[in-house]
Specification:
It is a single chain. The protein is of the alpha/beta class. The protein has a single domain (5-231), classed as Rossmann fold (3-Layer(aba) Sandwich). It has eight helices and ten strands. It has helices spanning 47-54, 77-87, 103-113, 115-118, 122-135, 151-163, 181-198, 209-212, and strands spanning 5-16, 21-32, 36-40, 62-67, 70-71, 88-92, 169-173, 201-205, 217-222, 225-231. A six-stranded mixed beta sheet has the order 6-7-8-3-9-10, sandwiched between helices. Strand 1 (5-16) and strand 2 form a beta hairpin. Helix 3 (103-113) packs across helix 5 (122-135), helix 3 runs parallel beside helix 6 (151-163) and helix 6 packs parallel to helix 7 (181-198). The chain is globular, with a radius of gyration of 18 Å.
Length: 235
């Protein structure tokens, strides 16, 4: 059962002036805390732009996004950075792990960036990372570098980095796009399970109809507009 609205998207439009391209047009919806939403649509339909707007990485040309009742447009750059650091997590298609850091160091990074505000000791951070790596099946890979991992392992490490600080919202952009079917299924099941355990809201962009069935709600975009909204069952 939904607890409370986490995201409110009100008549959001976004135009890239350098290309004179309208990526989003009059998009409105509400996401409740703990839900799993899936964004679908053909390439260029606005999925990644919408994720950037929801994740406070871009500002809509028109309309507004409320995160836990707070307008993202009203925040300063520093406040938006702090919001992303503390309340949001990101998983990308190309993993985006830092190659010079080990798995454990990559996963620990969000906690270390927030260490001044959280007051967590190095020992506490190490314990949290070790616990999550165990859940991810990466305990034996803690001291490995990204180049020493398989694609599935790299994506699991990226999920760990996105969830270690227990964000309210996790945004995932084609997280299985570079994985084979077997590894992709395992990663998605793990992501879904961990987020349910932690009460994390997920919004994930994908092209896969099978992947969409994991979600609660499917939002289909076409030419930057909402084409349909439906329950994931029977997509």
């Amino acid at each position: 059962m939904s607890l409370s609205p986490l995201l409110t998207v009100a008549k959001v439009s976004h135009t890239y002036p350098q290309h004179d391209t309208q990526a989003l047009c009059d998009v409105s919806f509400t996401v409740d805390a703990g839900e799993f939403w899936v964004l679908m649509g053909p390439s260029g339909c606005g999925k990644s732009t919408l994720l950037n707007v929801l994740g406070a990485m871009d500002t809509p040309t028109q309309g507004e996004v409320l995160f836990a009742g707070q307008s993202l447009s009203s925040l300063s750059d520093n406040e938006r950075t702090l919001l992303r650091r503390t309340h949001m997590g990101y998983v990308f298609q190309f993993f985006n792990l830092i190659p010079t850091l080990t798995v454990a160091e990559n996963v620990a990074l969000p906690l270390q960036l927030n260490q001044r505000s959280t007051g967590l000791s190095a020992k506490s951070i190490h314990a949290k990372v070790a616990e999550l790596l165990s859940q991810l099946g990466l305990a034996q890979r803690a001291d490995y570098y990204p180049s020493q991992l398989s694609g599935g392992e790299m994506q699991r490490a990226a999920i760990g980095r996105a969830l270690i600080h227990q964000p309210k919202l996790l945004l995932a952009d084609e997280p299985t796009g570079n994985l084979d079917t077997d590894n992709g299924d395992k990663v998605l099941q793990l992501l879904s399970t961990l987020c349910k355990e932690r009460g994390t809201t997920i919004i994930m962009a994908t092209h896969s109809e099978d992947v969409a069935k994991l979600g609660d709600t499917v939002l289909r975009l076409r030419n930057g507009r909402i084409h349909s909204l439906s329950n994931a069952v029977g997509v």
